[in-house]
């Protein structure tokens, strides 16, 4: 059996592609079609919580589904990023916070590949949100590794940095829970 050649791509290639992609170690990864409603609802509710929290902070910004060009062979599109400092056309340095809403199709990428990548790149806080469980797992970078702060179902979490951020997960999950209960 002969080894197959797997082409490696760069950011220049990535810019030419149609559709939604991420580039990890030069390997293109197609993103799923438009996320389902619960994903979009959580995305907007978490972004809103972050925006409220950063209202008085002029240094940090909430970005939704914005490309982060890590290097020529790695471009990812986190669901939500909080970046501090100068705002450019796309994210060019490690965000302060990244939130990924985990779906069955993205679980391995979010929990393993991006988990390691974001730690290596110095993302201070990484939050994984699980819509089916109404749960968020919050991690803080310490000594180059993520340490779990905790699982949040309806509690508030405070994340300290240039501008402190608070997320009330009771507010985040409230409408989604109401919708699910109304259906059953």
UniProtKB/TrEMBL annotation:
Protein name: Uncharacterized protein conserved in cyanobacteria
All copies of domain Putative restriction endonuclease, residue ranges: 12-150
Protein origin, superkingdom: Bacteria
InterPro entries, alphabetized: Nuclease_put_TT1808 (IPR012296), Restrct_endonuc-II-like (IPR011335), Uma2 (IPR008538)
Biological source species: Nitratiruptor tergarcus DSM 16512
Lineage: Bacteria, Pseudomonadati, Campylobacterota, Epsilonproteobacteria, Nautiliales
Pfam family of the protein (one): Uma2
């Amino acid at each position: 059996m002969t080894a197959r050649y797997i082409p490696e791509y760069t950011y220049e290639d990535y810019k030419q592609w149609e559709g939604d992609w991420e580039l990890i170690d030069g390997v293109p990864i197609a993103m799923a079609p438009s996320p389902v409603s619960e994903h979009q609802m959580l995305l907007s509710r978490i972004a809103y919580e972050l925006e409220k929290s950063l209202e008085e902070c002029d240094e940090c910004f909430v970005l939704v589904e914005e490309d982060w060009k890590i290097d020529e062979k790695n471009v990812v599109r986190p669901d939500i990023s909080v970046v501090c400092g100068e705002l450019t056309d796309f994210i060019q340095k490690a965000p302060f916070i990244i939130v990924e809403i985990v779906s069955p199709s993205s679980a391995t990428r979010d929990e393993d590949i991006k988990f390691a990548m974001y730690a290596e790149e110095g993302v201070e806080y990484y939050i994984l949100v699980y819509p089916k469980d109404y749960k968020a797992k919050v991690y803080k970078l310490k000594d180059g590794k993520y340490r779990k702060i905790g699982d949040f179902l309806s509690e508030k979490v405070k994340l300290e940095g240039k501008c402190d951020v608070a997320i009330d997960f009771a507010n985040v999950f409230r409408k989604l829970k109401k919708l699910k209960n109304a259906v059953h």
